[in-house]
Write a structure and sequence with these properties.
This protein is elongated. The protein contains 3 helices and 10 strands; from the N terminus they run E-E-E-E-H-E-E-E-E-E-E-H-H. The chain has about 200 residues and is an alpha+beta fold. Helix 2 runs antiparallel to helix 3. Strand 5 and strand 6 form a beta hairpin. Strands 1, 2, 3, 4, 5, 6, 7, 8, 9 and 10 form a 10-stranded mixed sheet that branches.
C-alpha cells in the first residue's frame, strides 16, 4: 500500500508532521457538510489539514479536500460550501483539488498530538514500529478544549531510546525486541500513540 500523506502542525514557527493522535475533536469534514473523496493513492481518506498552534490555541489554517465531480464543478463556479466564512478555491493539481485557505478556525481538540520532523539516520529503521521511531525532532502537545496545556520536547528522550536500542544491538535484530522498544516509547510520552501502519 502507498504510504499516506499526513496532516501538518505549525508549532513555534516550524512545520511538523502529525504522527500520532490520542484524543477527540480534530477536524472532521462530515461535521461541516463535506464528504471527502480520495485525492490520490497517497491520500485515501480524501483530505489533508494544516493546523497551527497560536497563542496556545489549536487552529485549522488550511484544508485540502477531494470532492465529487459535481461538488468540484460548484467550487470552480464559485459556489463551494463555505467553511469558517471562507469559500474554497479549485486547484488543477491532481492531488490538491479543492483548497480552503486562511481559515484560522479554532479546533476544540482534547488529547495529545505527537508531531515529528526529520529522520535520525542513526536509528534502526522499521516501518510501523512507532510514529516517533527514527525521527530527529519529536514534540508532544497536550490540549484541553483546543487550548495547549502542556508541551514536551521529546528529542532527548528519543535520543536515549535510540542509544538503548544500539546497546541492545536492536539494529540487527529489531523484530524480537519490539515489545521492549514499545515499552521504552510508551514510557517516553504522556499518552499512548499507536503506530500508523497506513
Amino acid at each position: 500500500m502507498t504510504a499516506q500523506l499526513h496532516d501538518t502542525v505549525e508549532y513555534r514557527k516550524h512545520v511538523f508532521e502529525l504522527a500520532g493522535v490520542q484524543g477527540t475533536g480534530l477536524f472532521e469534514p462530515s461535521a461541516h457538510g463535506l464528504t471527502p473523496w480520495a485525492m490520490s493513492t497517497a491520500c485515501q481518506r480524501g483530505f489533508l489539514c494544516r493546523y497551527r498552534v497560536a497563542d496556545k490555541r489549536l487552529l485549522l489554517e488550511e484544508l485540502r479536500i477531494g470532492l465529487s465531480a459535481q461538488e468540484e464543478q460548484a467550487v470552480r463556479e464559485g459556489h463551494g460550501t463555505p467553511l469558517s466564512g471562507q469559500l474554497p478555491t479549485y486547484a488543477s493539481e491532481a492531488h490538491e483539488r479543492v483548497v480552503y485557505t486562511r481559515l484560522r478556525a479554532p479546533v476544540a481538540f482534547t488529547g495529545g498530538l505527537l508531531v515529528v520532523d526529520g529522520f535520525n539516520r542513526r536509528a534502526p529503521f522499521h516501518e510501523g514500529l512507532h510514529p516517533a521511531w527514527g525521527r530527529k525532532r519529536v514534540q508532544e502537545l497536550l490540549f484541553e478544549g483546543g487550548r495547549l496545556v502542556e508541551e514536551r520536547d521529546c528529542d532527548g528522550v528519543m535520543a536515549r531510546v535510540h542509544e538503548q536500542a544500539r546497546e541492545k544491538s536492536l539494529e540487527l535484530e529489531l523484530a524480537p525486541h519490539r515489545a521492549l522498544v514499545a515499552q521504552w516509547l510508551a514510557d517516553a510520552f504522556r499518552r499512548d500513540y499507536a503506530p500508523d501502519l497506513g
